[in-house]
Amino acid sequence: MPRVDLFVDPVCPFAWITFRWLTEEVSPARDLDLRVRLMSLAVLNEGRPDHTPEHEKGDDSGWRPVRVATASGRERGEAGVRAFVRAFGERFHQERIRPRDAALRAALGDIGAPGLHACADDPTHDGAIRIEHAAGQEPVGDDVGTPVLHVDGVAFFGPVLGAVPRGQEALDAFDGAVLLARNPMFYELKRTRTGGIDLTS
């Protein structure tokens, strides 16, 4: 049974697609130990000259959803992280609820945890976020974004998917990732994105 750790930032649309691929298509059909974990674009983008610091973005700060996801995980374990990522993704990515804080509040209502909204502005969660982010990123290196996938301890950036693969196509993609992870000399497979992104399928 492969151990699969998926590191996501809830605000990333590509992470949302990968989350849905693994939880909706792969996990029900494959015997795997899947853990949904957190990384943070707020941490990843710190100090980048072309990026507005998150603390200047108010209610749209990228820190806020990942803090709430961390708090949900502290209360309910991995299931709490997974429940929040799904609820926030449905509201923010699928329904396109804006501003971001409105999607955050709606997601917390969906999982029955409205009291966790206060955690969005609580920086005491940031240390745990940085530790979890490092666990996801360090095996891959600095030239990554989100999602990050670990398969039996072998880490990749991606897969970056423009839509959720379904059925056998979804399983083929996963089986390919497992095979690549088993090759100790495999490092990178990449091409330039030429199409759009489909968050509705």
Summarize the structure in words:
The protein is α+β, with helices and mostly antiparallel strands. The protein has one domain: Glutaredoxin (3-Layer(aba) Sandwich), CATH 3.40.30. Helix content is 43%, strand content 10%. The protein is built from 7 helices and 4 strands, in the order βαβαααααββα. The chain has helices spanning 13-26, 41-44, 63-76, 78-94, 100-110, 126-137, 167-181, and strands spanning 3-8, 33-38, 148-151, 154-157. The protein has a 4-stranded mixed beta sheet with strand order 2-1-3-4. A hairpin with a 2-residue loop joins β3 and β4. α1 packs across α4 (78-94), α1 crosses α7 (167-181) and α3 packs antiparallel against α4. The longest helix has 17 residues, at 78-94. The two termini are 29 Å apart. The model has no long low-confidence stretch (mean pLDDT 92).
